[in-house]
Specification:
The protein is elongated. It has helices at 2-40, 46-71. The protein is built from 2 helices and no strands.
Length: 72
């Protein structure tokens, strides 16, 4: 019974790690963009928008790579 439980826990741990990476990449890039907007005194927050979009794409890439590794 214990042997069947271990692979499921490992899969849940991997899924949690993937979701954490995705969240961290989006939030991290958004914070960098915010600080660049503040540093260069940009009123329209262009850096925040651009870096948030880059963070989303990086997060989706990490999500796809992580799911591919789980399935293999």
């Amino acid at each position: 019974m214990e042997e069947n439980k271990q692979p499921n826990q490992n899969k849940y741990t991997q899924l949690f790690a993937i979701s954490s990476q995705m969240t961290a990449s989006i939030v991290g890039f958004a914070i960098v963009g915010y600080f660049l907007d503040d540093f260069y005194h940009v009123e329209k927050h262009y850096f925040t928008l651009a870096f948030t979009l880059v963070g989303i794409f990086v997060g989706l890439y990490l999500l796809m790579q992580g799911i591919k590794n789980i399935n293999n």
